[in-house]
Design a protein that fits this description.
three-stranded antiparallel sheet, 5 helices, 208 residues, alpha+beta
């Protein structure tokens, strides 16, 4: 779970002192996961500042289907998931800190993605994309009529695609695992709840 960094030449010595390493293959600096307790020390070198969540190098894509409310056809839908992640927040002293969240969740209302995660989605899930305007949240689109499928209807309504209320409904979801060399990043919402525990326990997991 190494994190790519943009380190200016003039600050390379400082970066090394803070546990940052050099990858000769991609010719870039990175922070290995064993040094994630120093995330705030390297925060100024983290790329794509809009992505306030660092995912592990192995993520999962949840798959299921839903009924499109525009055309009444059944369409595949996906959600990005992770067993744990790091999120940048403000502490009680109003200081920015990186905190580990050690629980499974599915992300919704996705605003931005790191390049490696965006490329994976474009190659494997072309129906998951930004809204028609190009500026809206990333969302599933019906594979029949191409209309966006509102995340609120997929996640927030009990009994919806990614909000199962039973073991059988959770088992209808499958989780495909994807491995990255460097940690992907995302800016999105997330929640906790018993329905997520159902997914963790009963959804099948498969490597890509």
């Amino acid at each position: 779970m190494s994190l790519l960094l943009n380190v200016p030449v003039a600050e390379e010595a400082t970066a090394k002192a803070r546990g940052v390493l050099w990858d000769t293959h991609v010719k870039s600096w990175y922070l290995p996961d064993i040094n994630y307790d120093r995330l705030m020390e390297v925060d100024s070198w983290i790329a794509d500042k809009d992505n306030a969540i660092i995912l592990p190098d192995e993520i999962m894509i949840a798959h299921t289907t839903t009924l499109c409310r525009h055309c009444n056809h059944t369409s595949p839908v996906i959600a990005i998931g992770s067993d744990y992640f790091f999120v940048k927040e403000m502490n009680e002293r109003d200081e920015a800190v990186w905190l580990e969240q050690d629980f499974f969740t599915l992300f919704e209302q996705t605003a931005t993605l790191s390049d490696n995660l965006r490329l994976l989605l474009q190659e494997n899930y072309p129906h998951y994309k930004p809204g028609h305007s190009g500026t809206a949240y990333w969302s599933n689109h019906c594979t029949h009529c191409n209309n966006p499928l509102d995340d609120r209807l997929l996640f927030e309504e009990a009994g919806s695609a990614f909000h199962p209320e039973s073991q059988e409904a959770a088992a209808a979801i499958s989780l495909k695992l994807f491995q990255f060399k460097y940690a992907p990043r995302i800016d999105a919402g997330y929640t906790t709840g018993p329905y997520l525990r159902l997914i963790t326990e009963f959804a099948a997991r498969n490597m890509k």
